[in-house]
Design brief:
- The protein is α/β, with parallel strands linked by helices.
- It is built from 13 helices and 14 strands.
- The strands form four sheets. Strands 2-8-7-6-5-3-4 form a seven-stranded mixed beta sheet, sandwiched between helices.
- β3, α6 and β4 form a beta-alpha-beta unit.
- The longest helix has 22 residues.
- The radius of gyration is 22 Å and the shape is globular.
- The protein binds pyridoxal-5'-phosphate.
- The site of pyridoxal-5'-phosphate has 13 residues, from α5.
Length: about 400
């Protein structure tokens, strides 16, 4: 069959594939523990449900404007004022089908074929594929010091005449690292100086721990006019547990938003009116759920870190936010795909291989599930990997026998 070059160059989302694999095993009754997921199971806000139901009851579920309904834009404008101390106009805002579509459409609006977009390693799995979908090239920038915290020099080294944009995701998926204020200030200034776009993927910015405060990129911008090349991304998926509602947004200069709107209008049209209503409900409603989620995640992180720290040979950097821990298992197996498959096959624990995020030897472990699942999963992994483990392990009344070395 003849497929396009772009289609042939794209691989499916590994995290979505893992979700399917875990679901299939669960359906068969296998005692799977899924540490691979990118969503927590807390209840979505009641205000979101009520807003959706109220709109559904009107029976008026029609096309929505390609860039989002005015009421949602208004909520996003409030959000931008509250969290970024920045006042923007409706023409500076587009609502999309998740932060994923907002990033994709932003890249389509700014990248020409062969141009380059730089992002620090480890990076979210979709950035390289999104660049490819534009016929452009993703350029990973590995921090020189081997940490998860990039410095401006790491980005500078990758800049060339084809560089069009930098994507920064902090707190970061998969490392959980929240980049330093110094780095954010440096990257904002550097992109302004070089006149390149800066996409700030802030999707996890309210899920941070240890009393840290989110960093506002606009604080360091010298140019806040309509020439600003900062594209700020956010959404309801992570902070409100509304992954299935598929609402994200971008805030940027009017020309970029207009271009993104034109693209989106031919791609998907505006996001479903019902889901936009739900997002308005969440954004305008009671916010205490976000803080209780944050506290739960911080507690889960502490437990996972304690368990991993007692795992001989595994190297862990404490995540500052998100719900992921990116741990170095290379002492056991350098090929992370092999290791991840081994853990599913032997002890039914689902993890995501580090290679998907640009770093071999690592596994991404989500701590968004129940504490019992987190602790049991790490215990199962220890049993499978530690050569000094006892010969047998019971999962419920199922006996596993360790017949590998
Ligand atoms: C770093 C990052 N950006 C964007 C997204 C997309 O979020 P959404 O569900 O709003 O499309 C995700 C989801 O996993 C993510 O981890």
């Amino acid at each position: 069959m003849s497929l396009s070059q772009i289609a042939r160059s794209i691989s499916g989302s590994p995290t979505l594939k893992l979700n399917e694999k875990a679901a299939l095993l669960k359906e068969k009754g296998e005692p799977v523990i899924h540490l691979g997921g990118g969503e927590h199971k807390s209840k979505i806000p009641m205000d979101a449900i009520l807003a959706t139901a109220a709109h559904l009851n009107t029976g008026e579920v029609r096309y929505a404007p390609a860039d989002g309904i005015p009421a949602l834009k208004k909520s996003i404008i409030h959000y931008t004022e509250e969290f970024y101390n920045r006042h923007v106009a409706p023409e500076n805002v587009i609502a999309s089908g998740g932060a994923k579509q907002a990033i994709m459409v932003a890249l389509q609006a700014i990248l020409n074929p062969q141009e380059e977009v730089i992002y620090p390693v480890p990076y979210w799995v979709s950035y390289p594929e999104m660049a490819k979908l534009c016929g452009a090239i993703g350029v990973p920038a590995l921090p020189d010091d081997g940490s998860f915290y990039p410095k401006i020099q790491d980005i500078e080294q990758k800049i060339g005449s084809y560089t069009k944009a930098v994507i920064i995701n902090s707190p970061n998926n998969p490392s959980g690292a929240m980049y330093s204020e110094e780095f954010i200030s440096d990257i904002v200034n550097y992109c302004e100086k070089k006149d390149i776009y800066l996409i700030m993927d802030d999707i996890y910015h309210r899920l941070i721990f240890d009393g840290k405060k989110p960093i506002n990129c606009y604080k360091y911008a010298r140019d806040l006019s309509e020439n600003s090349k900062i594209i700020l991304i956010n959404g309801v998926s992570k902070q409100y547990a509304m992954t299935g509602f598929r609402i994200g947004w971008a805030v940027a200069n009017k020309k970029i938003i207009e271009a993104m709107t034109n693209i989106q209008s031919h791609q998907t049209s505006g996001p479903s009116i019902l889901l936009q209503k739900a997002a308005i409900g969440a954004l305008n409603g009671i916010q205490s759920g976000v803080e209780s989620l944050r506290i739960t995640l911080e507690n889960n992180r502490n437990i996972m870190i304690d368990y991993l720290n007692s795992f001989e040979g595994v190297k862990v950097t404490k995540p500052d936010g998100t719900f992921y821990c990116f741990a170095d298992f290379s002492v056991y197996e350098k090929n992370s795909t092999k290791l991840s498959e081994f853990l599913i096959d032997k002890v039914m624990v689902v993890t995501v291989p580090g290679s998907e995020f640009g770093m071999e030897g690592y596994l991404r472990l989500s701590f968004c599930g129940a504490i019992k699942e987190i602790t049991e999963a790490v215990e199962r992994m220890k049993w499978a990997l530690d050569p000094n483990s006892p010969n047998e392990l019971y999962i419920g009344d199922r006996k596993l026998v360790r017949d590998w070395s």
